Amino acid sequence: METFGKKLLSVSKKHNISTMITYGENICEYADNFEFDKLMNNLKKFPKLIEDLKKQIQN
After folding, report:
1. How many domains does the structure of the chain reveal?
2. What is the pLDDT of residue 1?
3. Whole-angstrom Cα distance, residue 25 to residue 2?
4. Amino acid 59: pLDDT
5. Can you give the pLDDT at residue 8?
6. CA–CA dist 31, 58 (Å, integer)
7. Residue-range definition of the domain harbouring residue 41
8. Per-position b or e across 8-42, b if 16+ CB within 10 A of its CB
9. Cα separation of 49 and 8, whole Å?
10. CA-to-CA distance for 48 and 46, rounded, in angstroms?
11. Residue 44: what pLDDT?
12. So what's the pLDDT on residue 11?
């Protein structure tokens, strides 16, 4: 999961997507600290974040 968070963070920084930067930072932090509950709750939000980004791109 930490690898996913780092890759997401890298791409988000490259494209300056602030919401995804924060999301990637949280994933990395939770994975690094073995905060499984927080990690799983955060991962559940991923589809909604992607949907919101799609809507922003279309507008």
Report:
1. 1
2. 85
3. 10
4. 74
5. 92
6. 32
7. 2-58
8. bbeebeeeebeebbebbebbbebbeeeeeeebeeb
9. 12
10. 5
11. 95
12. 93
In the block, residue with structure tokens 């992607």: 50
Tokens of 5: 């968070």
Distance of CA 38 to the CA centre of its chain: 13
Averages of pLDDT over runs of 10 residues in the chain (59 residues) are 90 92 94 95 94 87
User: How many angstroms separate the CA atoms of 22 and 5, rounded?
Assistant: 10
- The number of residues in the chain equals 59
The answer to whether residues 37 and 22 touch, using CB atoms and an 8 Å cutoff, is no
End-to-end CA distance of the chain: 31
Residue whose entry in the numeric block shows the structure tokens 């600290």: 33
For residue 21, the model assigns a pLDDT of 94
Using DSSP's 3-state secondary structure scheme, residue 33 falls into coil
